[in-house]
Amino acid sequence: MSADIDTLSDFSSGNDGARRFARWLAGFALHGGSILAFAALLIFFSITAPFFFTLGNIGNVLGQSAILGVLAIGLTIVIIGGGANVVKGGIDLSLAANLGLSAAVYATLVSTGHGDGVAIAGALLTGGLIGLVNAIAIVIFGIVPLLATLAVMNVVAGLELVLTQNTVVSAASDFLSVLSNYGPFDIPVLAYVLIIFTIIAAGIVQYTPLGLRLYAVGAFPEAARAAGLPVKRIVASSYIASGLCGGLSGILSVSYLSGSTTGAGEMLLPVVVTALLSVVFSRRLVPTIGGTLLSTLLVGFLTNGFQLLNISSTLVSGIQGILILLVVAATSLQRGKGVA
Amino acid sequence: MSPVADNGKYALRLRGLVKRFGGVEALSGATLEVERGTVHGLIGQNGAGKSTLIKILAGLYQPDEGSIEINDISHRRLSAHEVEKLGIHFIHQDRLLVPSFTVGESLFLGREPRLAGLPFLDRRTIRKRAEEILDKYFKLKLPANVLISELTAAQKQIVQITRALLDKPSILVFDEPTAALVRREADILFDLIRRLRADGITIIYISHYLNEIEALCDRATILRNGKDVATIDPRATPASKIASLMVARDIEEMFPKISVTIGEPVLTAKALSKAGKFQNVSLDIRQGEIVGLTGLLGSGAKDLVRVLFGLEAADTGEITIEGEKGRPRSPVAAVAKRLALVPEDRRGDGVALGLSVAENITLASLKRFTGFGFLKRDEEHTEVDRLIEQLAIKTNGRFAPARTLSGGNQQKVALAKWLSRKSTLYILDEPTVGVDIGSKVEIYNLIGKLAERGAGILILSSDLPELIGITDRILVLYRGAVVREFQSSEATPDEVLAEATGALIQHYGEQRHVS
């Protein structure tokens, strides 16, 4: 009989410990390194660009980053709930197109004489519906999120063209001018919007049972199922939440640009960078809402610093591409060690 | 017996269960009756129907026929949710815990304590209660904010059991719980299971380790080919009887040994050393010879195999393969020298679940079946059918997707893949780990045939009776050195183990110590 001989008891710790240490080191380098890089960037810009480290400039950056931040928080929710696997995990590529269509809906409603209430409802409904379509494609039809949202992105971008005839729809209303104005301390209202929205989103994602379940579903769906969680419903909700973020960012963008413009699709790359970068700001190396706010600011400061230094802003998107590669490579290296 | 007297005796009665998947009948009338407050074993080979039975109990599959009675109430069908409400909980073989969660979060996922009157998590209570509970049940002092990924396999298992206990279960099902545990950890688990039984919890314990069943279970049901063949008292039934009930085969046939004439050396290694791994190891393997290699984790046995196959470089020493000097510098070079390595983690990287059984088997040897750049399907299929038959792979035909096979059969497919490649030296790393007894015999037979064909075989295994049964010679590594070579016919498991653990070192004096 195959009597079992306990051959695995004594020496397991040394080898295992070394590997664990290597993983810890990789994680520490990723986490610590990024925070150092962020700090170095801030210091560099404050020395080279005199206006950089002023309350006014920081407020401006926050305000300019509001649209990006709201979208990235939407994407973060999807990544948390869908898992960080770059190919099969959660991703919402339709977010930037969603912003475009929601903004177009809002601007069109306002410019055709509807009130702000109707326009806000219209934009959020648009965003929510896009999220619902994504959710149905992914959860019910089982299409890989990368493909499902890519297809939806194209449909949504097409709808925007149909609605706006590829023109700028300008819009003005009391609500829009409040949003685009400056608030206390001469800081743009949009900056306050971003901060309040982040606090609400972080409150839900990091501090409620729902948030914990979202993490469980994304990190290990089998475990979530074994814990009796409705996995599909939670994943679907994450896409709807992300769609709503798209709708909200559409409203912010109409106020920021005094109307809807074409070319919202260009937001896609920055949004993906920002959300992916979020992991490096958490100790467990998981995406967090707070981390996303920090990476939004990093991307914002990077763009702003370049402008202050009169460096061509076209370089920024190149740097963003490199950042995606670096972060994805570093995190998958760090995880790969765990798998092997 | 009157029905009144019967009332309450059984916690669970599954009778005459039938379950078909396509053409394959996974269960054909299986019955499992578990008395309240007992530990009931469920044994059977891979593919005997254990997992199907358990999945029916878990509400994951619906039976085609048969009746389910839990606490004397019949259920026509069960859903996963109902099962949980009935107080049946499962401790799975795979630890279903989120690696990036803390212990506390894992314990309370799905029933999180909240701050009074608020929708927010009460992290303090989570931490405090988790530490209290772990201490109460297991005397385990584990900070509740440690991440799951930092725990050992046994600690993870404890977290999972604790999770189930929080629900005050009436029936706990353990599915191969010791698969990832070492002996000491398993003993802790057994004590715990006995304690749970004393608390009145009914336990179903699934395992193919007979010694565990004997040590732990009050009763045991043996499944074979989708039917229950017997329910026995494992303490009163000799292991050989149980084993023969499982396989319906005489246990003496377990290790078939074909006598083969030993030929020329296939591989000779002289004075191989690798810093920190092993020192001054020499060995030779001849045509038709089966050589065993064993040692504890960290003994250098695994590293030695990796060096022989070119996965790692040795610092000094020389290797001669079929008369040709030169260490293989890479696995590609090793394959070119007609070496084959069957890795231990075959289910992990060995099987493409989406491909058919046939495609999987010939994946590593496509060249053999290629003519003018096209696949020669006929030859391929003849070879595949031969291997399916030889290894008794239970499949719905050669075109069935690998994912439809049971775990043990997937493993046999992985093995077949490497064996379909003709080589002169096969290095097999734990060739039968996780495989049931019946399949083991088929694998042993196949190894014997490879030797008969003139191949040399090196088997790395920690299953000592197996190693003694099928090899000609056994080399024991301890702390990076060959401490003893046995003729297998003269070795006993106890002796081999004593050498491998270094228990005999003091008898022979300190010069045997290689640090």
Helices and strands of chain A, in N-to-C order? HHHHHEHHHHHEHHH
- Cα Rg of chain B: 26 Å
Major sheet characteristics of chain A: 2 strands, antiparallel
Distance between the termini of chain B: 68 Å
Q: Radius of gyration of chain A, rounded?
A: 22 Å
Structural class of chain A: mainly alpha
Number of strands of chain A: 2
Largest sheet features of chain B: 6 strands, mixed
Q: Could you report the average pLDDT of chain B, rounded to the nearest whole number?
A: 79
Count of folded domains of chain B: 3
The order of strands across the largest sheet of chain A is 1-2
Description:
The complex is a heterodimer of chains A (340) and B (515). With 340 residues, chain A is mainly α. Chain A contains 13 helices and 2 strands; from the N terminus they run αααααβαααααβααα. A two-stranded antiparallel sheet of chain A has the order 1-2. Residues 1-16 of chain A have low confidence and may be disordered. Helices cover 33% and strands 25% of the residues of chain B. Chain B is globular and about 75 Å long. Chains A and B meet through helix 1, helix 8 and helix 9 of A and helix 3, helix 9, helix 17 and helix 18 of B.
Topology:
The complex is a heterodimer of chains A (about 350) and B (about 525).
Chain A: H1 12-48, H2 55-82, H3 95-111, H4 116-140, H5 145-164, E1 169-170, H6 174-179, H7 189-207, H8 209-219, H9 221-226, H10 231-257, E2 259-260, H11 268-277, H12 289-308, H13 314-339
Antiparallel strand pairs in A: 1-2
Helix pairs in contact in A: 1-12, 1-13, 2-7, 2-8, 2-10, 2-11, 2-12, 3-4, 3-5, 3-10, 4-5, 4-10, 7-8, 8-10, 11-12, 11-13
Chain B: H1 3-6, E1 10-21, E2 24-35, E3 39-43, H2 50-57, E4 65-70, E5 73-75, H3 80-85, E6 88-91, H4 103-108, H5 123-138, H6 153-165, E7 171-175, H7 183-198, E8 202-206, H8 210-216, E9 219-224, E10 227-232, H9 239-247, E11 265-274, E12 278-286, E13 290-294, H10 301-308, E14 316-321, E15 324-325, H11 331-336, E16 339-342, H12 346-349, H13 357-362, E17 370-371, E18 374-375, H14 377-390, H15 407-419, E19 425-429, H16 437-452, E20 456-460, H17 464-470, E21 473-478, E22 481-487, H18 493-501, H19 505-508
Parallel strand pairs in B: 3-8, 3-9, 6-7, 7-8, 13-20, 13-21, 16-19, 19-20
Antiparallel strand pairs in B: 1-2, 1-4, 4-5, 9-10, 11-12, 11-14, 14-15, 17-18, 21-22
